[in-house]
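Risk register update: the risk of archive-format incompatibility is retired. Evidence:
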Amino acid sequence: MSQPEFDVVVFGATSFVGQILTQYLFDRHGAGSAELRWALAGRSQAKLAQVRGGLGESAADLPLIVADAADSAALTALCSRTRAVISTVGPYALYGTPLVEACVDSGTDYCDLTGEVQWIDEMIRRFETRAQASGARIVHCCGFDSIPSDLGQWVLQQASQRQLGAPCTTVKMRVKALRGGFSGGTVASLMNVFKLASEDPALRKKLGDPYLLCPDDRRGEGRQPNVKGPALDPDFQAWVAPFVMAGINTRVVQRSNALSQQAWGTRFRYDEAMLTGKGFKGRLSAIGLTAGLGGFLLGAALPPTRWVLERFVVPKPGEGPSPAAQASGFFDLRFHGTTDDGRSMRAKVTGDRDPGYGSTGKMLGEAGACLARDIPDLPGGFWTPATAFGQKLVDRLQDHAGLHFEVAEG
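Archived output:
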């Protein structure tokens, strides 16, 4: 493994996000360069060739690797050829475990875009000791879930330590603006979580644990804030409503604190919500967003309505926003942190594409390259984006991927 053939292999290159990621890497690195040697992988030679053909004649030398997500021998052979694997093959709880195990046992680095926290918890509990022994660095949640939240909060904390001499022990993330759509793959992952939770009371309890992903000896203390309905936020002087991704991002951020030896405090508090505006209009918008999200979650939790949603409402796997919709998308996230003595720090993270697809493809590509090339001294184990990459990925995202991070006091 000291001189593998590739730096990065994109596994699931024919998926909706996989094709976006492939286009991004080709635009950045061509069919391979001294900066990044990469290849495409998936279960169908014909479909891989079709994706490569869509890149143009100059992509003709881009290598293709055939491997099925359920074929352990093929996955092990794939891992032997690369420093890192980027996986877009979900739902991960259904299809992702054999590849993680192959990477762990071969000492190959791995990243993905999953938001399935119950599966991440299972992977950590099953494989972390083996990853530490083999040297494999495993980094889940390297898309919109949860790079902007995790790195945005990390950037805020670095600035707070530098400028205020203390960490922010309470941090809020608020979505100021967002434009984007869902793909069928993301919906399939969400629906699988709802299906499993509806059948398993123990899983429902686990999903409600804000410290689910923290090591048992570094769980935080106290209850965590959780915006469940319309509320007036005094720090932002605006109304807020629940944010659908909060249940994922908050768990990742809490794990970052735990892996950082609880540098932000044993009672560190972090929550996320949508900003809906000021005054009566903002309140009405918060009520409407809460009702809409609640209706969707209720429908997804009940088998008959879940079937209707999957059949007639939500996109199918392989479907998603058009290239024009991806290009016109964006996101603007705002952070407010408070130290124990009441001083405050603010941060902003913005992205220039549809957050879940156009921007996620770029984030995932830079995370994979960073994993393969930029962090040789990181030991094996299961890491978060902030604890694995830190400033190195922030720099890559700002230089190449259309993200911007800003901080200010007060």
